[in-house]
Design goal:
Layout (H helix, E strand, L loop, with lengths): L8 H86 L2 H12 L5 E9 L2 E8 L2 H12 L4 E14 L2 E12 L1
Antiparallel strand pairs: 1-2, 2-4, 3-4
């Protein structure tokens, strides 16, 4: 005998297959959404951490810029102090030079024949004005100056005859180049 089954078993399989596929699709979709949420959260956390690192780096940059500025101020102060110390050292070394120069100059003046009226110094040049008994005394004084340790060159600018109390004297102006 032939048996015929009239129950819709194929349709039942199709429905079960369709349910299974829908479950797989829904599960895949939920899994996909979970992966997207996880990625979003991890990227947000990464952005947040990078933002904090940027803020920390900016704060550190501000601090380091201030320190660098302080260092530049200290360098400028140090340079200024070194210049001042060098000036003080130079002044200390040269403070006795004018005294020695004047002392040597007084030794070079011929006594009773010549007297100095004015000394002035401009940069490396010494201008001497004075009066002498005659031109020979002026020449002797110039020769003495040329042999001096602080003068390199002596030039006679002018001589004039001048009468003082009935005596004829020579008024002179010399320029000397200092060492």
């Amino acid at each position: 005998m032939i048996r015929i089954n009239l129950l819709p078993y194929r349709e039942k399989e199709k429905k079960e297959n369709l349910k299974r596929q829908l479950t797989i699709i829904a599960g895949s979709f939920i899994f996909f959404l979970l992966v997207l949420v996880f990625l979003q959260l991890s990227i947000s956390a990464s952005i947040s951490n990078l933002g904090k690192e940027v803020k920390d780096a900016e704060n550190r940059l501000v601090v380091l810029t201030k320190v660098a500025g302080d260092i530049e101020v200290f360098k400028a102060d140090k340079e200024s102090l070194e210049k001042k110390l060098n000036i003080i050292k130079t002044l200390e070394e040269n403070r006795l030079v004018p005294v020695r120069m004047l002392d040597e100059l007084t030794m070079l003046v011929p006594t009773k024949d010549l007297w100095l009226e004015k000394l002035s110094e401009k940069e490396a040049e010494l201008i001497i004005e004075g009066t002498a008994r005659n031109n020979i005394a002026v020449a002797h004084f110039m020769k003495n100056l040329a042999g001096s340790s602080f003068i390199t060159l002596v030039d006679l600018i002018s001589t004039k005859e001048k009468e003082i109390s009935g005596i004829k004297l020579q008024q002179f102006v010399l320029t000397c180049t200092l060492r």
